[in-house]
Amino acid sequence: MLLNVSSTSLIFSSQQAHRDWLASQAKLPDGFRVGSVRFNFIPRETPKPAKMTLTLLTLDESTELFAAMFTRNAMPGAPVLIGRRRLQEKCWRAVVINNKISNVCAPDGEATAEKICAKVAELLDIQPGEVLPSSTGVIGWSLPVDEMLGALPNILPSLQGQSILPAAEGIVTTDLYPKIRRIDLGNGSIVGIAKGAGMIEPNLATMLVYILTDIAVSRDDLRAMLVRVVEPSFNSISIDSDTSTSDTVVVLSSGKITCSDMADFEAGLATVCRDLAEDVVRNGEGVRHVIKVKVHQAPDFDTARHLGKAIVNAPLFKCAVAGNDPNVGRLVQAIGKHVGAQAAGLDLARLRLRMGGIEIFADGVFKLDPHKENLLVAHLRDTELYQSVAPTDGVYSPAVNFPPHERCVEIEVDLGLGQASAVVIGGDLTHEYVSENADYRS
Amino acid sequence: MLLNVSSTSLIFSSQQAHRDWLASQAKLPDGFRVGSVRFNFIPRETPKPAKMTLTLLTLDESTELFAAMFTRNAMPGAPVLIGRRRLQEKCWRAVVINNKISNVCAPDGEATAEKICAKVAELLDIQPGEVLPSSTGVIGWSLPVDEMLGALPNILPSLQGQSILPAAEGIVTTDLYPKIRRIDLGNGSIVGIAKGAGMIEPNLATMLVYILTDIAVSRDDLRAMLVRVVEPSFNSISIDSDTSTSDTVVVLSSGKITCSDMADFEAGLATVCRDLAEDVVRNGEGVRHVIKVKVHQAPDFDTARHLGKAIVNAPLFKCAVAGNDPNVGRLVQAIGKHVGAQAAGLDLARLRLRMGGIEIFADGVFKLDPHKENLLVAHLRDTELYQSVAPTDGVYSPAVNFPPHERCVEIEVDLGLGQASAVVIGGDLTHEYVSENADYRS
Question: What is this structure's pTM?
Answer without folding.
Answer: 0.87
